[in-house]
Amino acid sequence: MDDLEKVETIRTKCNVSYTDAKAALDAADGNVLDAIIWLESQGKTQTTSAHAATESAPADEPSAEMVAARAAYEKSSKKTDFSKKMDSVWEYLKKLFRLSLDTKFIATRRDAIILNIPILIPIVALFAWGATIWLMLIGLFFGMRYRIDSDGDVPGSINNLMNHAADAADDIKQNLNDDK
Description:
Elements: H1 3-14, H2 18-27, H3 32-42, H4 50-54, H5 64-77, H6 81-102, E1 104-109, E2 112-118, H7 120-128, H8 131-141, E3 144-149, H9 156-178
Antiparallel strand pairs: 1-2, 1-3
Helix pairs in contact: 1-2, 1-3, 2-3
């Protein structure tokens, strides 16, 4: 048994502080029984008699140091309002990212699929490279049609809007050909 275990045993048996238990162990030259006897002779123990121990023994209450340590731990582990909000924002962004990978941007020409990519790529391209929107508009005049497909709900108005834009490009192209 090392010194820490001996001190812990004395502290538990006699209901004294670590300092008193260590002092008693030093006074008894490392002998636990002698240390307990030394503490009793000093009047520092709070042991109960055998008769009192057979009756309902009071529950061990945590020391003041333990209560303070527990309170400090609970305070440090509690989430603040800001961290709760940031967690909810992070969860929303992860959900949005997953949805943007599951939703597909499809470009077709004469009913053949030319491009089938996650919607995230065209969205990033629109912000990162300004020519993306112009390339998509020019693609409309070369017979490209765009749509968005997803396992979830894609508002029909988005695909209808893209169909109307393709139809308008076809009308403009037809008018230009008729004027020749």
